[in-house]
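Provenance and format

Records in this collection were gathered into a single text stream. Each protein contributes a sequence line and a token line. The two records reproduced below are adjacent in the stream.
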Amino acid sequence: MPDIHHTAIVHPHAELADDVSVGPYSLVGPDVVIGPGTSVGAHCVVENHTSIGAHNRIGHHVHLGGLPQDLKYRGELATVEIGDNNEIRENVTVHIGTENGGGSTSIGSNNFLMVGAHIAHDSHIGDNCILSNNVMLAGHIIVNDHAIISGGAAVTHYVTIGRYAFVGGLAGVVHDCPPFMVSDGHPNRVRTVNTIGLARHQFDATTIDHLKRAYIALYGHRARKNHSQGQGGYANLDLLERDLGDDPAVMELVEFIRRSAAAPNGRFAEVHRPDNKRTAPTR
């Protein structure tokens, strides 16, 4: 049966696998499901409809399934869903979703969430991602597989971060971050290709070279100059597709940028926003 510290409070309706451990002074609510091999540290709160998979390590003072910080939330049923083999360190907070955002916040598998990271309502984290200390994700954010977000970065609502993207520390992220690229600054800008990350994940040299050529075409000095003169900073997308369209990584980059460029505020996920953002909710 589960190893529950005598000071912990686990609701009898919670579903815990036989080898789950719950540390001192932690609280586990009635609608919580925790899978095999998962350990919950001291002074944690796991509540509301939160489902946690297998072999997760949850550090001390973690809060999973808290209510969303959204004035539109009216107590509707919503969930947090967490996959397998995640490392969730001290003071991480993950909030349930809202009806306005689909009703679910999700975290995939094999992620590393460092101290103090916050994942707000209706956000979705893929697999093999790293969120460093004090990363702040607002609501409705999508973080795709193998992305890394460095310490103290703040990401605004409806931003999408592409696969294998790297976001610099303390960045103010207000636009989508393209896959395979390094983004940084206030507001965030694409700075270079994430060559180190791609090499670590064994991308071949030809693909990395193609992405470097794509970066120069899209974000190099001439492209920035054309953009500042009103000629469109993304005018080279068609040329890239023609010249390097056989490379799946380049096409992923091109399609990502097209979607973001056509979206309001450079945030593709905002296209699917169901509410009128100009109507302020009241209490």
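Adjacent record:
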Amino acid sequence: MSEPGGSGRGPGRPARLTRELVLDAAEELLDREGAGAVTIRAVAEALGVSPMALYRHVGDKDDLLLALVDRLAQRLPRPTLPDDPRERLLVLWVLLYEALAEHSWLPEVLARRRLMAPSVLWAVEAIHAAFRAAGLELQDAVLAYRLCWQFTLGALLVRAGLAAPSVQEQLRGAPDPERFPTLAAAAAGWRAAHGRDTYRADIAALVDRLLE
């Protein structure tokens, strides 16, 4: 196989392979088929090149995924943040949630590979600083961030359909009221909540408890 840009270039093959073209192809594959479908070989096939050609631009799959996560993080808007620490926290968490929700594969990648994109550190810094400004000690701010992040990631996984089924789904209908009276009474509430995105209200309630 000739080098990218050579005379042996096949139909659809890029004239010159670049890191951006590799990331574009990987992102398109992820959006179309999910995280499990993305390998160095699959991205190479999408570009019409050999896997070895990709290794000149990305080290391995983890390097590829981290580069993609970082590129998405670079697209995050930087809004004017409120002076009030609580309101600042809500703006930042909703910003992260909505940005991550745009790509259904992203929460799975973050949950399984524990990647941290350098380009999102400004938001992580701002969240820690807001917790501190609200009166939390540094270690408490770390724990509060960790709790909110785990909640946010869980909400994203549920939204993407990747988390465990709800109690109601596992029980396949209303539970036996004699054996499980509380669950049976809650069945209507489970049905009403199914499919609703309540993240904004939920993160507000969580932040309020953490700041008490």
